[in-house]
């Protein structure tokens, strides 16, 4: 052991939503098990993030993914917490240099779940579907141009309540979020080969200060290498594309032995245009995602390319 089991406490920072709390507890329990310490040794410190305060407008309009991490970033930089536990999907591609991704937990089910219909094709003609994710909106309209997309935010429980109240005919949630909240029976999972997930979906990412060797060693014990490789590839693809939370991008990663198969699809926001491609490269080849990005951008029509700064 590289730290004093009895004396040293770690402070874990998280958002306060029920899903974020469930993820924080999972990280804490994995750390306690890996190090043979009491869970109480890791103190959970919860914050209401800016992204949770504004519920009536799409995240892309009010400041993007940074609103999920702003408060925790400040606490981490100031040393008020030792590490922060995030949904990988919610963490900006470009992060402050003083932070490092110290661990990625074993990835959950990457699929989206459709709630309100059995499949995309089973949605009634002209169905009203609630989502604020550009990827879900564009992917839906690509398959079903007759549907109407309306802005839909809030945590998992809020969205389910809005659906139950009849505000929309259907909505999407990540299977991973539902499972982590113990809601396994809700909705219909969509085949991940036909309906691609978001970069980082279903993965939990833990950041600490890059120079904090003690915490880095502590967190390394629960790092899951295949999940880390997949998340790194997806984040690298997004970075090479110059994508933001405005960019309709979907991605699916498979680790096959020593190789990564990375599939990506870019859309125009109205779903009319789509470009898709894949790239197979050895684990550790950091150029693979950039090759796929270049291929996609080379084939993207302007209505797609305009949403990706990497095209410049
Ligand atoms: N943008 C919100 C968000 N961030 C992570 C998840 C779910 C869990 C995950 O994908 O890891 C969700 C909710 C959703 O998309 O249903």
From TrEMBL:
Monomer. Its EC number is 2.5.1.61. Gene3D superfamilies: Periplasmic binding protein-like II, Porphobilinogen deaminase, C-terminal domain. One of its GO terms (molecular function) is hydroxymethylbilane synthase activity. GO terms for cellular component: cytoplasm. Its cofactor is dipyrromethane. It comes from Novosphingobium endophyticum. The porphobilinogen subunits are added to the dipyrromethane group. One of its GO terms (biological process) is protoporphyrinogen IX biosynthetic process. The modification S-(dipyrrolylmethanemethyl)cysteine is found at residue 245. Residues 230-279 form the Porphobilinogen deaminase C-terminal domain. HAMAP family: Porphobil_deam. It comes from the Bacteria. Residues 11-216 form the Porphobilinogen deaminase N-terminal domain. Pathway: Porphyrin-containing compound metabolism; protoporphyrin-IX biosynthesis; coproporphyrinogen-III from 5-aminolevulinate: step 2/4. This is Porphobilinogen deaminase. Belongs to the HMBS family. Binds 1 dipyrromethane group covalently. Keywords: Porphyrin biosynthesis, Transferase. The keyword Transferase applies. InterPro entries: HemC, Porphobilin_deaminase_N, Porphobilinogen_deaminase_C, Porphobilinogen_deaminase_C_sf. The gene is hemC. Tetrapolymerization of the monopyrrole PBG into the hydroxymethylbilane pre-uroporphyrinogen in several discrete steps. It catalyses: 4 porphobilinogen + H2O = hydroxymethylbilane + 4 NH4(+).
